[in-house]
Specification:
With 85 residues, the chain is mostly helical. The chain has one domain. A two-stranded antiparallel ribbon has the order 1-2. It is rod-shaped and about 105 Å long.
């Protein structure tokens, strides 16, 4: 019977440690991971936009136009030459 309080204290200590780890994860680790993922997604999105625009401009320079399929139609982009009066 003398070991019953020690076992109870050991179990409660383990429960407190587990709860502390859950709180640390919820307030420190998980937000850091979410912030890292968000910054990488934004970086990849911006890089994708830059790559797309550079590819379109390169194709316009090489071929004189670029066709972008939108649904069942095609949008054709070509450089415009304005005439100076």
């Amino acid at each position: 019977m003398a070991d019953k309080p020690r076992v109870t204290i050991a179990i409660l200590t383990i429960i407190v440690i587990i709860l502390a780890l859950v709180v640390v994860y919820a307030f420190l680790v998980q937000p850091a991971i979410s912030s890292y993922i968000s910054s990488k997604q934004i970086s990849a999105y911006n890089q994708g936009q830059a790559d797309l625009l550079n590819t379109i401009l390169l194709q316009i320079q090489q071929a004189g136009y670029v066709g972008i399929p939108i649904g069942n139609q095609t949008l054709i982009l070509a450089p415009v030459q304005t005439q100076q009066p």
